[in-house]
Amino acid sequence: MLNFKQINNVTGWVVFLVATLVYVLTVEETASFWDPGEFIAVSYKLQVPHPPGAPFFLLVYRMFSFLAFGNELEIAYWMNVGSAVFSGFTILFLFWSITLFGRKLFKIQEGQESKGETISLMGAGIVGSLIYTFSDSFWFSAVEAEVYAMSSFFTAIVIWAVLKWDVVKDPREENKWMILIAYLVGLSIGVHLLNLVTLPALALIYYFKKYEKPNLKGAAIAFFFGGVALVVINNFIIPGLPSLAGSTEIFFVNSLGLPFGSGIIFFSLAFFAILFVAYRYSRNKALAGLNTILLSLIFILIGYSSYALIVIRANQDPVINENAPKDIISYVSYLKREQYGYRPLIHGQYFTAELIDQEEGAPVYRKGKDKYEIADYELKNTYNPEKTTILPRIYSTQENHKRIYRQKLGLREGQQPTFGDNIYFMLSHQLGHMYFRYFMWNFSGRESDFTDAPWIGITDAFSDKFPEYITENKAHNNYLMLPLLLGIIGLFFQAKADPKSFYVNLMLFLMMGVVLVLYLNSPPVEPRERDYIYVGSFYAFAIWAGMGVLAIAHGIGKFTKNLATAGIIATLITLPVAGLMAVENWDDHNRQGRYFSVDAARNFLASCA
What we know:
Blueprint: H1 4-25, H2 35-45, H3 55-65, H4 75-106, H5 115-133, H6 136-142, H7 147-167, H8 171-189, H9 199-210, H10 216-237, H11 240-255, H12 262-284, H13 288-304, H14 308-314, H15 328-335, E1 347-349, E2 355-367, E3 372-383, E4 388-390, H16 399-409, H17 419-443, E5 445-446, H18 458-461, H19 468-471, E6 477-478, H20 482-497, H21 499-511, H22 514-520, H23 535-560, H24 563-589, H25 596-606
Helix pairs in contact: 1-4, 1-5, 2-3, 3-4, 4-5, 4-6, 4-7, 4-23, 5-23, 5-24, 7-8, 7-9, 8-13, 9-10, 9-21, 11-12, 11-15, 12-13, 20-21, 20-23, 21-23, 23-24
C-alpha cells in the first residue's frame, strides 16, 4: 500500500501533467505582442535585451529553441512551450507547498498521516493548485515566452524549499537546504527580481522553527532581517558589486594610468580572496552559522554569474544590443535601469511642484581611447519644499500625467493637491485600480478585456445588466465569487488553526501584492494592464483556497465523524470551482490560431521602402 510520501509525489506529478497539458494546448503559436517578440529573438541568438536583462532566461530558452530542429518558423512556438512547462512546474510546487502547509495545520508528524488526513490534504492540494492553474493572470503568462512564467517557477520552488527546510531535523541537512535556496535565489536574479520579495516573509519560517516561544517582537525582528537580506542582494550584490568594481576600474585607469580591465581584475581577486579567507576562518573556528552564511553568499554569486553573458555577448555586437553594455561602466548603468528614470519612494514632489534649482551631481563616465572620460553629470533636481511630501504618490510632472491626476482627484486647473489627495490616489488608484481590481479579476470575475475593465462583484454575478457586446466578449469571466469565498474560508481557518503559517502566507500575500504596489509607485496611466506583476500575491491566495478545502473537510468531519469521507466530500464540493474557472477562461486564454501579431508586423514592413 502506498504511503503518504508516495501518494503526495504521484498526485503532485498528475496535477503537473494536467496543468502543463492545458498550457501546451492553449499556447501561443508565434510571437505575441509586447516583450515576447524581443525575448524570443534575443534568446535564439543570445543577444542583449532591454535592461536589466535576463541572462539565465536567455540561456534556458535558447535550449528550448533547439526543439524546432532548425525550422525557424517553429522557434517562437517552442519557446512559448518553455513557459508552459515552467508554469506547470510552478503548479507542481504550489501543490506540494499546500500539502506542507496542511501537514503543519493538522500537526502531522512524518509517517503518521491517517487515511482521512491524506485524502483531505490531496484534495486541498488539487483544488488550490488547479484554481491557480486556471487563474486569469497566471494563465496569460503561462502561454507566451516572457520572463514571468520562469520567475513564477523560481518563486514557487523557493517557497517550497523553505517549507521543506522547515521539516528537516538534522542541522547538516538544514544547511544543505539553505545553500540550495541561496543558489536558487542567485539563479532567479538572472530571470527577474520578483523572487527576492519573498525573503522577509520566509525569514518568519526560520524564526518560528528556531525559537520555541515566538512573540510579536521576535517576529518583527526576523522580518526585519529578511528585509535586510533583500536589500543586501537587491542593492549591494546586484548593482553594488559591479559599481565598486567600476569605481576601482576608473581609479586604476584614470589615476594610476594602468590599462583597461586592470581595476576589475584587482577588485575580483581582492573580493574573492577576502571571501576565501573568511570561509577558511569559519571552518577552522567551527563557526557553523558564519560558514553557512558565507556558503550561501557564494552560491548566490554563482547563480548571479549568469550575468556575465550580457557583457560577453554585448562585445560581439549582435544585431539586438540594447544599451551595448560592453564595459563595466555601461554595464552598471544597464543593471541600474538608469534609462527608465527615477520614481520617488519616501519623499518627493507633488505634480504641481516648481523646479527651483538643478545641480550637477556625480560624473557619468564613458570609455574613451585610453581612459574613462566624463560624458555627462547626474542632475539633482530641487523642488519648492512647500510642494513636497512624504510618501509621494502624485509625483509625475509630465503634462498628460498632470491632466490625469487632476481628473482622478477632481482638482481644477491651478488648484493645489493636498496630502489627503496624495493618499486618496494611493488607495483608490494604485492599491484599488492597479491591484485590488486585478486581484478580483482572478478570484471573483472580469467584465471584459476592454481597457480598465472592472471586476464582477456579487451584485453583478447573478444579474443580466450587461449589454450583449460585454456578455459576448471572450474575457467576460464570471466565477460567481466562489474562488474568493473559498480563499477567505481558508484564510480564517489557517489563522485559527495554525497562526504561525498564517502569518507567513499573509506576509507572502502582502509583500508580493500591497508592498510591491507601494514600492513600484506606478504613474497614473500605464501602456497596458499590469496584472502579471502581482501573480505572486495571487499564488499566496491560492494556498488559502487549498486551506479552504481543509476547512470544509474539517467542518464536515464533525458531523460524519470520518475525516476520509469528509475529505472526499469537501474535494467533490470544491473541485467544480476550479472547473468553473477553466470553462470561463479557456476561450480568452486559448491562443491557438492567433497570428495577428506577426500579420501586423508583416503589414508594417510591407509599407516600408
